[in-house]
Structures are given as C-alpha cells and as structure tokens.
Amino acid sequence: MCHAYDAFEREVTMVKSITEEIRELREMTVPELRARYREVFGEETRSHHKRQLFRKIAWRIQELAEGGLSERAKARAREIANEADIRVRPPRDFLNGAARPRLRDERLPVPGTVIEKEYKGHVVSVRVLDKGFEYRGRTYRSLSAVAREVTGTNWNGLLFFGLAKKRGER
C-alpha cells in the first residue's frame, strides 16, 4: 500500500513541476524561449515565433518527463509516412484537369476576337487565342503579361484593355 502511494506522490509532484515549468514558459520572451529550446532540444532553432516556440518546448518537456511515443507508434508513423504520396505543391492541372473542364473567364471575348487599345498614340492589337493572347507575333499567357510588355509596368490586363471595372465601379 505504501509503495503505491509513493508512486502516486511522485507522479503528482512531476505533474506539478511540469505545470509550473510550462507556466514559466508562457512568461518568457522570444530570446529566452530560444535559449530554452536550445537546452531541451540540444540544437539551435531558426524560429522567432513565440507561440510556436512555446508549443514545441512545452511538448518536449512533457515528452521528456512522461516518455514519448512508444516504439510501436513510431514504427506505425514511419509506415504511414512511407506509404504517403507526399507533394509539396498540387499538380498544375489540379483544378483544371480532366475531371473538371477549364472554365473561361466570362469577361474575355471568344477566341479569334481582336482587342484594341490606344496607348501613348499607338493602337495596341491583341488577338484572343484558345490558350493565351497573341501580341506582335508572340503568345502571352495573360492579358496582364501583354499589358506589362506594352507599358513596362505591372497592370491588371483586364483593366488595361477596358474589360473590367475598377473596384467600386459598376
């Protein structure tokens, strides 16, 4: 009976000390958290994000005190990670693939139409293509790219060619 009580007493003390340590973490500045991170992880951190540092350190303190994942859980996590098809970016045609046809912007005229705009005394003529726009024999992916070529500055192509209104205008 005494042995069980001693184990319970140690666990209560451990929980209190972890709770107090986490409470102290909440009051630390970013430089103090970075130093504490170095102590508990044994390496530098690149992070300067207070909340992220707090969470990582609090998790690590609990892990060190109570033990981390079991070897079985770690092995299962590795299995899942190995089976996963990990992508950093979605495929280019993710939303425009075969499952969903690419929708054409309603503000654009149909392919074959020539859009004209007078700019600095010259008429700029752009032909609308199925995929892109033709200006002076070159194909551009967007009207904004054509407007940039013409003006040398960044423009919303729809605004430049008068196909869209500015915010607030109807």
Written overview of the protein:
This protein is α+β, with helices and mostly antiparallel strands and 170 residues long. It has two domains: 2-83, no CATH class; 114-160, no CATH class. The protein contains six helices and four strands, in the order H-H-H-H-E-E-E-E-H-H. It has a four-stranded antiparallel β-sheet with strand order 1-2-3-4, covered by helices on one side. The chain is elongated. The chain starts with a helix and ends in a 10-residue tail after the last helix. The model has no long low-confidence stretch (mean pLDDT 84).
Features:
alpha+beta, 12% strand, 6 helices, 170 residues
Rg, rounded, reads 30 Å
**What would you call the structural class?**
alpha+beta
SSE pattern = HHHHEEEEHH
Beta-sheet strand percentage? 5-15%
Summarize model confidence as the mean pLDDT: 84
Terminal Cα separation, in Å? 82 Å
Number of H- or I-type helical stretches: 6
| Biggest pleated sheet | 4 strands, antiparallel
Work out the number of β strands.
Answer: 4
In short:
The protein is α+β, with helices and mostly antiparallel strands and 170 residues long.
Helix and strand arrangement:
Blueprint: H1 2-27, H2 30-41, H3 50-66, H4 71-83, E1 114-119, E2 122-129, E3 132-135, E4 138-140, H5 143-151, H6 157-160
Antiparallel strand pairs: 1-2, 2-3, 3-4
Helix pairs in contact: 1-3, 2-3
